[in-house]
Design a protein that fits this description.
CATH architecture of one domain: Sandwich
Number of strands: 13
CATH class of one domain: Mainly Beta
Bound molecules: N-(carboxycarbonyl)-S-(naphthalen-2-ylmethyl)-L-cysteine, fe (iii) ion
Helix content: 10-25%
Strand order of the largest sheet: 1-2-11-8-13-6-3
Radius of gyration: 17 Å
Number of helices: 2
Order of helices and strands: EEHEEEHEEEEEEEE
Oligomer: single chain
Length: 218
């Protein structure tokens, strides 16, 4: 069917997958149908395990707020980075990974050609205007053959996809509310980051961007 002007205003109008590397794909708007279920589930998670500012082993406080749900959660402190089954703030296990998020992650992974993805950890990042994430690799997970699925909510961001060396050139990719990004295989260990968030107000999330990254960590 021909795309009409109206489709531009229809947030659930399907858009084609955008391959940004051999095994890395943006699924535009893939999470939109799940948003009405995801947002209340996320509020429950944040109520049990509030956003906090982790400190890097080098003693720097991260600007981006962070929490987790799932069996394992990513933590950073003077001792280093690791996955932990308990939230150090409360001493309790992390909140349960919401069912809707599990389903979304495995269907996104399927759509990207990674069948049978069952995440056991979900990092939740909260960006405010000006917050950035400097170039890094995600290498604290046990099995690099498993992909990572990222869900973007709220204000748009420009994410930077680099190569396998820190100094490699980067491509800029815009991630909007409801976009899902899946990467794995040979692209699993690429350097990546997020440019400083531009000021703005999102109708559902206000002046924030929330990013969920689902991982198989343990
Ligand atoms: C990894 N989060 O939590 S996810 C992180 O938007 C993290 O909050 C970012 O990096 C965020 O560790 C980015 C998206 C992403 C995109 C492409 C990648 C991660 C990637 C390519 C290779 C490796
Ligand atoms: Fe990362």
């Amino acid at each position: 069917m021909m795309q009409t002007e109206l489709d531009l205003f229809n947030p659930t109008s399907p858009q084609p997958p955008q391959w940004v590397a051999a095994r890395a794909v943006v699924l535009p708007g893939f999470a939109l149908p799940a948003v009405p279920v995801l947002l209340p589930a996320l509020r429950t998670v944040i109520g049990e395990a509030p956003f906090r500012h982790m400190v890097t082993p080098g003693g720097l406080k991260m600007a981006v707020g962070l929490t987790n749900c799932g069996r394992l959660g990513w933590v950073s402190d003077a001792q280093g980075y690791r996955y932990s089954p308990v939230d150090p703030l409360s001493g309790r296990p992390w909140p349960t990974l919401p069912e809707a998020l599990l389903r979304l992650a495995s269907s996104a992974a399927d759509a990207a050609g990674f069948e049978g993805f069952v995440p056991d950890a979900c990092l939740v990042n909260c960006y405010r205007p000006g917050h950035r994430l400097s170039l890094h690799q995600d290498r604290d997970e046990r099995d690099f053959t498993q992909p990572i699925v990222s869900v973007s909510l709220g204000l748009p961001a420009v994410f930077l996809l680099g190569g396998h060396k820190r100094g490699d050139p980067t491509q800029r990719i815009e991630l909007r509310h409801g976009d899902v990004l899946v990467w794995g295989g040979e692209d699993r260990l690429r350097f990546h980051g997020v440019q400083p968030l531009k000021p703005g107000v999102h109708p559902l999330l206000g002046s924030r961007r929330i990013n969920l990254t689902l991982r198989s960590a343990g």
